[in-house]
Amino acid sequence: MLEKAKLALKGMCMGTADVIPGVSGGTMAFILGIYEQLLASIKSFDLECLRLLLKGDFKAAVSRPHFGFIIPLFIGIIAALMFFTRVIPLPKLILTDPELIYGLFFGLILGSIIILLKHIGNIQLKDIIEIVIGIVVGLLIVTMTPKATPDASWFVFFCGSIAITAMILPGISGSFILLILGKYAYILDGISHFKFDILLPFALGAATGLIFFSRFLSWLLEHFHRVTLLLINGILIGSLWVIWPFQNREYVEVREKKRLIDSTPIFPESFDATVMYSLLLMMVGFSLVLLISYLGDRKK
């Protein structure tokens, strides 16, 4: 029971990250040490599982996927999404106190970069190429400009498949992809008000993207493990551009709500209380990742 509660808590961390444009649930899974287990659990929903379900052999079908892992994690993710869209509107806090929110997540991501480099091992000169490619990819994604897009079900399905791909890839935020596609407020509004004409095509698209992309990522990690980790680490480094808490931010009105469309990192002009608390939260996030990694290594 305790393990299930821990998984639900980790799911809440992932769900919280997925609400924030610029922060990835996949990054959180990496930080929490469950990334490859997450991919393996998603992969366990395969054609054999579908065949057993169609035959009516529900007991055998349920025994194949890693339900013991995925269900409590999924419950935690959904709980966080509902909590931070209805109880504490985290997207609003990003607008009112961006330095504090992004300070915490900057520390978390910076810590995860250090831990990932530690797991990769000795970095050689040839490894720099993969890291630089990852940085360029990360920068290209986080500096894209949001576009006006249709509300049709087919496009919501497409958004779901693309966003979930980003959500499970460390360093790329699914919420930020939705913002680029012009559907961030539209989807969050659908989630918070249970609009099934939005939720259903989005969920179907997410399931489709999850099934295919998780297998592709697993294949990469199996056959090109070191190169894949180097690229992911580069993407994480590139994402720091938009996560840096001190920015000149430009917003646009989307459905009567302000949404970030562009930001340029700056150094604060003065050391005031906001800067102090942001740096403090940055250190908290960084220390938290190192602590989680340390405890995980001790447990192993």
Protein model, in words:
- The structure is a single chain.
- This protein has 15 helices and two strands.
- A two-stranded antiparallel sheet has the order 1-2.
- The model has no long low-confidence stretch (mean pLDDT 78).
- The protein has one domain.
- By secondary structure, it is mainly alpha-helical.
- 74% of the residues lie in helices and 6% in strands.
- Strand 1 and strand 2 (257-265) form a beta hairpin.
- The chain starts with a helix and ends with a helix.
Largest sheet: 2 strands, antiparallel
Low-confidence stretches: none
Lateral strand order in the biggest sheet: 1-2
Radius of gyration (Å): 19 Å
Secondary-structure element pattern, one letter each: HHHHHHHHHHHHHHEEH
Q: What fraction, in percent, of the residue positions are helical? A: over 70%
Inertia-based shape: globular
Output the structural class. Answer: mainly alpha
The span between the termini is 20 Å
> What is the overall pLDDT average?
78
The strand count comes to 2
Q: How many alpha or pi helices?
A: 15
Number of domains: 1
* Strand composition percent: 5-15%
Please render the helix and strand layout as text:
Blueprint: H1 2-19, H2 25-31, H3 35-43, H4 47-55, H5 58-63, H6 67-87, H7 90-96, H8 98-120, H9 127-142, H10 153-167, H11 174-180, H12 184-192, H13 196-223, H14 225-243, E1 247-254, E2 257-265, H15 273-299
